[in-house]
Specification:
Strand content: over 45%
Structural class: mainly beta
Number of strands: 6
Strand order of the largest sheet: 3-2-5-6
Shape: globular
Number of helices: 0
Distance between the termini: 13 Å
Oligomer: single chain
Order of helices and strands: EEEEEE
Helix content: under 10%
Largest sheet: 4 strands, antiparallel
Radius of gyration: 11 Å
């Protein structure tokens, strides 16, 4: 959250040992982070306006969400 965003994206999970990947509309990996925190904040203000795919991997589970950057 928030979605859509113009800046920071907040991700809260119940998982630790989390991998986050962000892909642009062409499928190019533009951001990747591995963390042990259940709450992550990253800055999307430098991303071009558009729709991005956020993939979260933890404990053998993957979650895919769309994020709009305005």
């Amino acid at each position: 959250y928030p979605n859509p965003t113009t800046g920071k994206i907040n991700i809260e999970t119940t998982f630790n040992d989390l991998t986050i990947e962000v892909y642009d509309v062409l499928g190019k990996l533009i951001f990747q982070n591995k963390t042990n925190d259940a709450k992550i904040v990253f800055d999307a203000s430098e991303f071009a306006k558009g729709v991005y795919t956020v993939k979260l991997y933890a404990d053998g589970i993957s979650i895919v969400k769309k994020v709009i950057v305005e």
